[in-house]
Design brief:
This protein is of the alpha/beta class and 253 residues long. Helix content is 49%, strand content 10%.
């Protein structure tokens, strides 16, 4: 989401709750029932949002995204109005709308418990893959320390503003930077596009695994995460590149 949609008013605030809460806020302000303490809570909420947006613009030079994690901490401030709105609708007295609103609330709760709850479980399950990579990265660190003989930094490194990389070496290419952090190096993440070649490459051995070319990489060792084995490869300098049958690990059964 971005500012052209519901980003600022829904990002990180659990959208089903946010829609009800903002509706309550608008109605209470329009009917002059908004109390002083509510104005304070609303000022804290919007002030937090504006500061976070300003931080993103100052850091990135433009507003490219609104991360959930930045706005999640103040979500409970909004949910107070959500609870008020649900109770108010449930207690609606007029017969013509009473059961319509109650069915609407039941549908809302089922959506939250079903789709939203299920989506959260899937997300947590996928985070298990992140834990797998982190454990494997920590296990790779001793292999890198024992193998790496290069400098601690790039000798000629051009700093580029608004990019998340440094001159530290060794540079480890992989989906997570745990191995690089453990050896005080730098992680080469595809999201950031590190400008120089990596020193090492970490590959997860799963159904999509493909052995890197032995012309460009030498096998260093294999470690295990929480789900998969991982293989570590050292990138060969140009003057060392050659095909060597012993450089590749034996095929897994």
């Amino acid at each position: 989401m971005n500012l052209t949609g519901l980003g600022l008013f829904g990002e990180g605030l659990f959208l089903p709750y946010a829609l009800v809460a903002w509706g309550v806020i608008v109605v209470r302000i329009a009917t002059h029932r908004f109390q002083r303490v509510e104005w304070l809570l609303l000022a804290l909420l919007l002030g937090h949002h504006l500061l976070e947006v300003a931080q993103l613009i100052a850091g990135d030079g433009e507003l490219r995204h609104l991360p959930d994690r930045y706005f999640g901490p103040v979500a409970p401030l909004l949910w107070l109005w959500t609870a008020y709105g649900l109770v108010w609708l449930w207690q609606w007295r007029k017969d013509g709308w009473r059961w319509f609103f109650r069915l609407l609330i039941i549908a809302f709760l089922l959506e939250v418990a079903g789709y939203e709850g299920g989506k959260k479980l899937v997300k947590e399950y996928r985070r298990g893959a992140a834990r797998d990579a982190l454990v494997a990265g920590e296990a790779m660190a001793p292999l890198i320390r024992a193998d790496y003989q290069g400098p601690a930094r790039h000798s000629a490194f051009r700093y580029v503003s608004h990019e998340y990389y440094t001159s530290r070496r060794p540079v480890v290419l992989g989906p997570y930077a745990a191995a690089a952090w453990a050896v005080r190096g730098h992680g080469d993440l595809t999201d950031f596009g590190y400008p120089l070649p990596e020193d090492y490459r970490a590959e997860r051995v799963d159904d999509h695994f493909k052995e890197p070319s032995p012309i460009h990489y030498r096998f260093v060792g294999e470690v295990f995460g929480t789900r998969y084995p991982w293989r570590l490869y050292r990138r060969l300098p140009d003057n060392e590149r050659h095909v060597s049958p012993s450089s590749a690990p034996s095929p897994r059964p």
